[in-house]
Structures are given as structure tokens and as C-alpha cells.
Specification:
- About 35% of the residues lie in helices and about 20% in strands.
- With about 230 residues, the chain is α/β, with parallel strands linked by helices.
- The strands form 4 sheets. Strands 1-2-5-6-9-10-13 form a 7-stranded parallel sheet. A two-stranded antiparallel ribbon has the order 3-4.
- Helix 2 runs parallel beside helix 3 and helix 3 packs parallel to helix 4.
- The longest helix has 14 residues.
- The protein is globular, with a radius of gyration of 17 Å.
- The termini are close together.
- The relative contact order is 0.10.
Length: about 230
């Protein structure tokens, strides 16, 4: 039987602690949760940071505090987010990545309306800068796919512009965000069918993340035989 790799996304950049006391906010809380899920079998943690007010932060010092504690206590694969830090420069979005050198970093390959809130902006120029930086420092991009067009965008950068992305690509399907692809078995099947191949040999790996327990219910019921 093939092994399942569990990646734990411990906290995003928005949901406040007032909604649930279980959301980690400080770097120590986030690191402690990472250690806890590692003991339960997780292999990867996807890390966002929060500022003192509980909002998303891309401050390198906050990432470093959490990353150092996790590395000292686990053998987890680290996946650092390049989003969720408010209105910052393109370079600031991946500064912590090139400093801390995780195994993986998020690569959000499209701009869209993250309903009911604002615009999740990922400009072509940002994607070029981020892609080059990740190649230079040897960090694997996790290409976040919120709908099918983002697979096409990733393939554009792979095939049309040199030095932005390198094969083999790793895609993560992010389903259930309001306004984007729904968390449904038929959607997952379609996205999986769109993954690239070269000369009949797959050049991609993939993972799945669903936004919330309610959104994931249709997939839990219906995907046992959808993707192999």
C-alpha cells in the first residue's frame, strides 16, 4: 500500500483566535502545534505567521523563531508561505524563504477575488521574481491551484519563459475557496486530468487541500476512486 504524506496547515493569515481558541498565533504556539502534529504522523507543515494583533505577517524574525524551534525538535519538511502578509513588496514576500531555506515554499500562480474579502494579488512580475529566487536558493515551489487556469499559467512559465519554474513541478489543489473551484469529486478529477506530461512521462506530483470541514465533506464521500 502506498504511503500517504500528510501536510498540516496550522494557521492561515486571517481567521482570528476569537473564532476558536485552537488557532495558533505566536511563533511559539505555531511551532508547538507543528511538533504536536509531527508526533501524530504529519510529514510537512505549511507555515503562515501572525503579527502581535493576530493578522498575517511575513516578518522573517517571526518565521525564524518558529522554524528554529521546529528544526530543533522534529524532522518535518517545512513549507513556508509567500502570502498573507498584507501590502508588502514583491521581494518581502519571499525574503524569509531565501533566508531560512525551507524545503518548499508556496507559489500562488494566479490573482483572484478571495470572497467575501479582497483581491489575492499575484502579478506576473511577482511570479517571475519569486520563481527565480526559489530556483537560485534551491527551494521547491508548491504551485497552488485554485482553479484550472492556474495549471495553464504554471505551464506558461515552464514552457515560455526560461528560469521561472523547473520540472518536475509540484501542484497543490486548493479547493473550496469562495468564488473559485469547489471541493467536489468531479472538479478534482478534472484538475487531475489537466496535469502536464511530457512524452507520456508525468513531470508533476500533486497534493490536495480543502478549505474547512464542511467544504471537504463531498470529497470525503466521493473521491475514494477518483484519483490514483
Amino acid at each position: 500500500m502506498a504511503k500517504t504524506i500528510i501536510s498540516a496547515a496550522l494557521t492561515g493569515a486571517v481567521t482570528p483566535k476569537s473564532l476558536t481558541p485552537h488557532i495558533p498565533i505566536t511563533p511559539k504556539e505555531i511551532a508547538d502545534d507543528a511538533i504536536r502534529v509531527w508526533k501524530e504522523g504529519a510529514a510537512i507543515v505549511h507555515l503562515h505567521m501572525r503579527n502581535d494583533e493576530g493578522r498575517g505577517s511575513l516578518e522573517t524574525a517571526r518565521f525564524k523563531e518558529a522554524v528554529d524551534r521546529i528544526r530543533d525538535n522534529t524532522d518535518l519538511v517545512l513549507n513556508l508561505s509567500t502570502s498573507g502578509g498584507g501590502n508588502v513588496s514583491d521581494e518581502k514576500r519571499f525574503e524569509h524563504v531565501v533566508t531560512l531555506l525551507p524545503e518548499i515554499a508556496s507559489y500562488d500562480v494566479g490573482t483572484f477575488n478571495w470572497l467575501p474579502g479582497g483581491i489575492f494579488a499575484n502579478s506576473p512580475d511577482f511570479l517571475r521574481k519569486c520563481g527565480r529566487a526559489l530556483i537560485e536558493c534551491g527551494v521547491k515551489p508548491e504551485i497552488e491551484v485554485f482553479d484550472g487556469g492556474m495549471i495553464n499559467a504554471a505551464m506558461y512559465f515552464l514552457e515560455k519563459e526560461e528560469g521561472i519554474l523547473q520540472a518536475p513541478l509540484h501542484f497543490q489543489f486548493v479547493l473550496g475557496v469562495h468564488g473559485m473551484a469547489k471541493a467536489q469529486p468531479q472538479v478534482l478529477t478534472q484538475l487531475h486530468s489537466m496535469l502536464p506530461a511530457v512524452s507520456g512521462s508525468s513531470i508533476s506530483s500533486r497534493s490536495l487541500m480543502v478549505m474547512g470541514r464542511k467544504s471537504s465533506a463531498p470529497l470525503r464521500r466521493g473521491t475514494r476512486r477518483v484519483v490514483t
